[in-house]
Structure formats: C-alpha cells, structure tokens
Write a structure and sequence with these properties.
With 144 residues, the chain is mostly helical. It contains two helices and four strands. Helices cover 51% and strands 10% of the residues. A two-stranded antiparallel sheet has the order 1-2. A two-stranded antiparallel sheet has the order 3-4.
Length: 144
C-alpha cells in the first residue's frame, strides 16, 4: 500500500467521522425538539384540565396519543444515535453494549433491534425528558 492509498484511506475515515458527527448532531437536535414538544403537550393537558376539571378525559386522548407518538420517535432516534456511536443500550439494566452483540454482557437480556415487533412498545407511564431531567409518573399517588 502506497502513501497515496494511506492518505486516501485517512481521508475517507475523516469524511465518515464527519458525516457521523453531523448525523448525531441532527438526531440530538430532533430529540430535543420532540422532548420540548412533549412538555408543551403536557402543559396543554394541564391547562385544559385546570379550565374544566369535569371535562371528559376522552377528549384529552388525542393529546395523549401525540405524546406517545413523539415518545416512539424519540426511542427510534436514540437507537439510531447509539448505532452511530457503536453501541446498544440494554433495556433491562441500562448497560451500554457493543452493537455487534445480541445479548447484554451484564444481565444477559436480549438487546433490542429496530425490526423487533415490540420495539414500538413504550414503558408504561414513565415520561422522561433528558433536557429537563424530570420524571413524570402518571400513576403517582403523591399529594401535593
């Protein structure tokens, strides 16, 4: 392999890394947008309930469906972002595992694939937004 081949390979590597960084940046920006929009939808739900607490909860279903749709988009984008970074996140223990593996090295759980039927499923009632560092638990029994 000559010097020009080595330079050409280095140039391709740099281009690939630049492309990956750009894609990762775009995904992060899209995730942030979706998280912010989820917060706005939660505010809309709260305002509507505050103005009319006796309103039929079914009328809020459209807003709740919007939240779930956005959460599924975020889940897919985080998966794509992790693929760019070269790892998967274990759904059971949260460990970062090389994306070549199908099972977690820490707990043995099967790692998700985007093609899986249950990939679209969401964890029940956990609404976490990374940007705000807040947990919203719909089943919370806390009295405020």
């Amino acid at each position: 392999m000559g010097i020009f081949d080595k330079i050409s390979d280095a140039q391709r590597n740099v281009q690939e890394k630049t492309k990956n960084m750009s894609e990762a940046s775009n995904l992060k920006r899209k995730i942030l947008y979706e998280e912010e929009r989820i917060g706005e939808v939660f505010q809309d739900i709260g305002k509507r309930y505050y103005k009319n607490p006796n309103e039929d909860p079914a009328s809020l279903k459209v807003l709740c469906d919007d939240i779930d749709t956005r959460r599924r988009r975020i889940k897919k984008m985080r998966y794509e972002l992790n693929q760019i970074r070269g790892y998967k996140v274990c759904p059971k223990c949260g460990a970062e595992v090389n994306d070549r593996f199908q099972f977690c090295g820490r707990c043995g759980a099967r790692l998700p694939e985007m093609d899986d039927d249950d990939f679209e499923s969401l964890e029940p009632n956990d609404y976490y937004t990374e940007s705000s560092n807040n947990f919203f638990n719909a089943d919370s029994n806390k009295n405020y």
